[in-house]
Specification:
Blueprint: E1 4-11, H1 18-31, E2 36-43, H2 50-60, E3 64-69, H3 75-85, E4 90-93, H4 104-113, E5 118-126, H5 131-146, E6 156-163, H6 164-171, H7 180-187, E7 191-198, H8 210-224, H9 227-257, H10 264-296, E8 304-308
Parallel strand pairs: 1-2, 1-4, 2-3, 5-7
Antiparallel strand pairs: 3-8, 4-6, 5-6
Helix pairs in contact: 5-8, 9-10
This protein binds uridine-5'-diphosphate and magnesium ion (MG).
Length: 314
Amino acid sequence: MVKVVSVLIPVYNEELVLLKLYKRLADVAKKNNKYRFEFLFVNDGSRDKSLEIIKDMKKSDNRVAYIDLSRNYGKEVAMIAGLDHVDSDATIVIDADLQDPPELITEMIRHWEDGYDDVYARRTERAGESWLRRKTSSVFYRVLQHSTEIPIQRDAGDFRLLDKKCVMAIRQFRERERYTKGIFSWIGYRKKEITYVRQPRVSGKSKWSYLKLVNLAINGIISFTTAPLRASTIIGLVVSLIAFIYILFLVIRTMLFGVDVAGYPSIMAVVLFLGGVQLISLGIIGEYISRIYNETKQRPLYLVDEYHESKVKK
Ligand code: UDP
Ligand code: MG
């Protein structure tokens, strides 16, 4: 039996690079002609000509498949939409913007044949990213790792090969607030890391503003662990303990030396500090409650407008 390998490409306004990407993918497929390749484009509500380009590709190449989502849902959802539709021995998730070199697929397949289930690419250098962005990302990974016992793959993006069993596993994760990197870590299985230098975008621009990244980081932590709740409990305990000691100190001092009224600044400082701590704790609780609210609605993760299969025999 010839094995089928699907390449899953989330696409959002990528008209400028799609053809270049397609060409490089086709070259990779030619090199690995032991396998049947399928190129599954997930059009995540692009507002440019991306969908037309994909449709044109499909006309001339029966390995091309596409899902057209009803609107823009974000990359995380586009990925699960794709994973829900593949039916192949291995699936490779790759960005459309050529920041992930398609040529690595050959190496990924080799490790997969060696028995690994999840071959992920770790970027060693981040070409074209600012110092601030690298620094925040490093802090983020450290916080995330400290808050959980599941090993987190640092700097591993979504560019990876997933064996069928990983795909089946990930399909069972129906949470709406998706943090796919966390899911990849959670599922376990035999992981293999390969490294590469992440390229700057070929053209177009990243859809991630700085604010969006911060949001993603908070999302990542909140949807992955409840450690922040524990942290606010601990902060509460520590502050109460300090306050208790301070009360004892005040009582004893008053008994020994009598009352003295001064101390307005220190009261203000304590009140404001505690007010801040309480608000932050409330905010943290709120984050989790909003997640509970969104999950209980049980909405579908995405809606498909059109789905056209490839003609690759499975
Ligand atoms: N993408 C998507 N939906 C979105 C935003 C991005 O499907 O709402 C796709 C995009 O087309 C690309 C990949 O996700 O293939 C990564 O996006 P981007 O290059 O903007 O992210 P970065 O490389 O900066 O992490
Ligand atoms: Mg990119």
